[in-house]
Design brief:
- With 586 residues, this protein is an alpha/beta fold.
- It folds into two domains: 360 residues, FAD/NAD(P)-binding domain, CATH 3.50.50; 143 residues, Cholesterol Oxidase, domain 2 (2-Layer Sandwich).
- Strands 1, 2, 3, 10, 11, 12, 13, 26 and 27 form a nine-stranded mixed β-sheet that branches. Strands 7, 8, 17, 18, 19, 20, 23 and 24 form an eight-stranded mixed β-sheet that branches. A four-stranded antiparallel β-sheet has the order 22-21-16-25, covered by helices on one side.
- Helix 9 links the parallel strand 14 and strand 15.
- Helix 6 packs across helix 12.
- The structure holds flavin-adenine dinucleotide (FAD) and 2-acetamido-2-deoxy-beta-D-glucopyranose (2 copies).
- One 2-acetamido-2-deoxy-beta-D-glucopyranose binds next to helix 6.
- Belongs to the GMC oxidoreductase family.
Length: 586
């Protein structure tokens, strides 16, 4: 097998390229055709917000769940809603508008909390580079766009929280449908994606299920948030369904704390354990470091939709978490909730990337292979990226003297471990709200996960062996005295062990050595431990968490569909509750 440098491999596999590698790409981009999105009228920079204001609902985090939630809460039967997002609007960052900008967005990722980049880079204590969204629309504004509903079994709960879920499946489906009508499309499959489709079928990932948003065993084409002209649709678009006059979206508004009041023991009632504190509002900071407060009207609620890193971080900063850790940091304890920040999960990604012998199109995930829909096996997907190679690598290579950047196409087939069961935690390095939390996922630390990774990588190898991919093999292949010459792939980085068909131990080592992230991290505020079946924070009143931090398992497939659905679903549920408490005003 042919190799290219370890340096290039690291560059490609992490997909976090050095910004200086891509200067000429930035110049090629154009914003959304100049037109402002329909929701632009709701947006305000936080510096223009008053020092204190009152709302019925304060949604923290304008991401995948936060946008549909805020739009719905402001709609018929809802109330006055404030949505607070630490990042800017997607229209400010042209690379977000198209699938072709995916790699460029990751290349611009910046770890600094004060940076304006729409993707924030971080590295977990495991040493695996990762990113989190920092822009209105959240993950949906920077991700690969693949859209697929959860397996129905996911809604019945999993593991220890099997008893704590309470999904109304009719409303779940209606909420998925609402999202799908607004922002999903059927992709046209060609090039690398079509070849991988055939290869998956040849490797017995069957049956062929055609185009479907359902998570079913076999090979399928899922929906995408990129439309026929290649333009991205994100959760921010859903803000267009807000009721004018009832939604305010503050950008570059970083929430630093939830304001809570102790509840008088004599006035405690209801849920068990009884809440000891009530959320009454939040404090947020604008880009000029001015502090603002948003306070709840009577009967109002604060909802955290800041994602699997942001939501547990904010609970901890607000004194809701493990009492001893909080005291150690000097944060006054509002409610002792030991599991905040615990049970953090990330799906390990292991893949094989090749440089195909023929030029291929850039493609994000469209075709996936699901060997078993219940998550007992791995989950396979493919992408192809066109990435700049020069000038950083040209000094030692054959590219000396070239002034224009060189591009190479890298095609990849990857697998993730669904679930997973290996878990880690998130913690605050200090009481400073602007310091990023630390976290560790403990990838593949449980033998069940490692065993599924071994199966998954073997599947990937089988797919790569298939005749359907012969046209992409390179002429630099191995020569054999025994049989016909078998053209090989030029592999990027770590090669598979030669005895991959039989050697589980060697494949397990490959899994551990090449582990990366598919960015599906979740947990930190899991249902049954930090929030109850209605996503209310245990121990607190008027405070919920609605996002991927409540999941103790990924929905089998890629998570965005289910997180978007959850925002719409919880908005409708909360309006229903509001009506059961008081007369409708609309
Ligand atoms: C590179 C990449 C590719 C991916 N590809 C896919 C894919 O193809 N398909 C798929 O289904 N999933 C994909 N995912 C995963 C998916 O996008 C995420 O799981 C999902 O978007 C997470 O949703 P969330 O609501 O939990 O958090 P987010 O969408 O991240 O929303 C959280 C929001 O809260 C804001 N925030 C955080 N803290 C604060 C604070 N203190 N104050 C104010 N605002 C705050 C953040 O800026 C962010 O906008 C991908 C993710 C990444 C990063
Ligand atoms: C919800 O939709 C799924 C398909 O995605 C279907 O199988 C299921 O029967 C539906 N459930 C209800 C209650 O409508
Ligand atoms: C999951 O599905 C596979 C087949 O796809 C089956 O062999 C296995 O028993 C199932 N496991 C569970 C826990 O249902």
């Amino acid at each position: 097998m042919g190799f290219i440098s370890v340096r290039l491999y690291l560059l490609l596999m992490s997909l976090v390229l050095v910004p200086s590698l891509v200067p000429s790409l930035a110049a090629q981009s154009r914003p959304y055709g100049g037109a402002l999105p329909g929701y632009a009228r709701y947006l305000l920079d936080a510096t223009a917000m008053p020092a204190v204001e009152q709302y019925d609902y304060i949604v923290v985090g304008g991401g995948t769940a936060g946008c549909p939630l805020a739009a719905t809460l402001s709609g018929p039967g809802g109330g006055r809603v404030l949505l607070l997002e630490r990042g800017g609007a997607p229209s400010e960052f042209p690379a977000l508008a198209t699938a072709g900008g995916f790699v460029r967005t990751l290349a611009m990722a910046d770890p600094a909390p004060e940076s304006d980049a729409p993707a924030q880079a971080f590295t977990s204590e495991d040493g695996v580079p990762n990113v989190r969204a920092r822009v209105l629309g959240g993950g949906t504004a920077i991700n690969a766009g693949f859209y697929s509903r959860a397996h129905p079994g996911w809604f019945h709960g999993h593991g220890e929280d099997a008893e704590v879920t309470n999904w109304d499946m009719r409303l779940v489906n209606a909420s998925y449908e609402w999202v799908e009508r607004q922002m999903t499309f059927q992709p046209t499959v060609h090039g690398w994606q079509a070849a991988v489709r055939a290869a998956l079928l040849e490797a017995n990932v069957t049956p062929w299920n055609g185009f479907t948003v359902d998570h079913v065993a076999g090979t399928k084409v899922g929906a995408t948030t990129f439309d026929a002209s290649g333009r991205r649709h994100s959760a921010a678009d859903l803000l267009g369904f807000a009721r004018p006059g009832r939604l305010r979206v503050a950008l570059r508004a970083t929430v630093t704390r939830i304001i809570t009041n102790p509840i008088d023991p004599a006035a405690r009632r209801g849920r068990s354990p009884q809440p000891t504190v009530a959320a009454i509002g939040v404090v947020y900071q604008d880009r000029l470091l001015e502090q603002h407060r948003a306070l709840l009207r009577p009967g109002g609620e604060v909802i955290l939709s800041a994602g699997a890193i942001g939501s547990p971080q904010l609970l901890l900063l607000s004194g809701i978490g493990p009492a001893s850790d909080l005291s150690y940091l000097g944060i006054p304890v509002a409610a002792d909730v030991p599991d905040v920040g615990k049970h953090m999960f990330d799906n390990p990604r292991n893949g094989i990337s090749v440089i195909p012998s023929v030029p291929i199109d850039h493609s994000l995930i469209q075709v996936v292979g699901i060997p078993s829909a219940n998550g007992s096996e791995s989950y396979l997907e493919a992408a192809s990226y066109i990435v700049p190679l020069a000038p950083a690598l040209s000094s030692s290579g054959p590219f000396i003297g070239s002034t224009t950047p060189l591009y190479i196409t890298v095609a990849t087939i990857m697998q993730k471990v669904p679930g997973p069961v290996s878990e880690g935690s998130l913690w605050l390095p200090s009481g400073n709200p602007l310091e990023s939390p630390a976290l560790r996922f403990n990838y593949l630390s449980r033998p069940e996960d490692l065993a599924r990774c071994v199966l998954g990588v073997r599947r990937v190898a089988e797919v790569l062996e298939s005749r359907a991919l012969d046209g992409f093999r390179s002429s630099v292949g191995s020569t054999s005295r025994r049989g016909p010459v078998r053209r090989d792939f030029r592999i990027v980085g770590t090669a598979l062990p030669v005895d991959w068909r039989t050697n589980d131990r060697a494949l397990a080592n490959f899994c551990l050595q090449t582990v990366a992230t598919l960015w599906h991290y979740h947990g930190g505020c899991v249902a049954g431990k930090v929030v109850d079946r209605d996503f209310r924070v245990i121990g607190a009143r008027s405070l919920r968490v609605v996002d991927a931090s409540t999941f103790s398992e990924t929905p089998g497939t890629n998570p965005q569909a289910t997180i978007l659905m959850m925002g719409r679903y919880m908005g409708l549920k909360m309006i229903e509750e509001r009506h059961s408490r008081r007369p409708v005003r609309s």
